[in-house]
Amino acid sequence: LYGVEVSPTLISNVTNKIVPLIKEWQNRPLQQVYTVVFLDAIHFKVKQEGHIVNKAAYMVIGIDLDGNKDVLGIWIGENESAKFWLNVLNELKNRGVQDILITCVDNLSGFSQAIAACYPKTDIQKCIIHQIRNSTRYVSYKDLKKVTADLKPIYKAVTEEAALLELDRFEEHWGSKYPLIVKSWRQNWDELATFFKYPPELRKLIYTTNMIESYHRQLRKVTKGKSIFPTDESLLKMLYLSTMDVVRKWTGRVQNWGQILLQLTVYYPERVQVR
Length: 275
Hints:
- The chain has a five-stranded mixed beta sheet, with helices on both faces.
- The mean pLDDT is 90.
- The protein is α/β, with parallel strands linked by helices.
- The relative contact order is 0.15.
- The protein contains 13 helices and five strands.
- The chain folds into two domains: 18-127 and 209-275, Ribonuclease H-like superfamily/Ribonuclease H (Nucleotidyltransferase, domain 5, 2-Layer Sandwich), CATH 3.30.420.10; 128-196.
């Protein structure tokens, strides 16, 4: 456009200027208490020693006592694993996070044990949407709409007791044809049903990982043109710059925060101190 040649080396040298900023951001002190923390990973292809490998970018979004949300950090690792998540949680602790009231996660095996090892008092809410996706993975196409519709009364129930009755009804209807669905819901029930003890405003916030998935969609808009990243660092640079752009637009508090906070002070009187 301007008649100037720009080499890949020059681009790297320019973008290297942000590496110290990323390190400073990644190591900044965090708040002592977060009400809700969303943990999820997004996957990318990266070159490594002449091969193309799948890498997981581990993302953490926290909502503080004032109802403001922030990205607490980004970590690049090989494949998503509970062990790596434990490292992430320990790093949050080392940066000052003493307590998390509720964590919202997907159904990765071992995830709950990693959270319990680091934050034993934290309530764990497994994402209902992930559970539905896992449930319908093996359903034949002709049954898909009906199975999805019959799962809805379970997670839309007013109380946990009513939800368990709906799960029994689902088992009566579909248990013989799709026993794995029923088995999965029952095995994961304790952490799928966490949201039932909370009021509607808080339920809506925690029963899915929508907040972090919305953030992932913003990142995908920027990274979709890059099918393979040359290094972990180049991936981290792009994710950091995109994240700064997203976070800049997060100016308001979470909807109905005043009401949610009052409820949390009742549930956690020792752990939530209203300033």
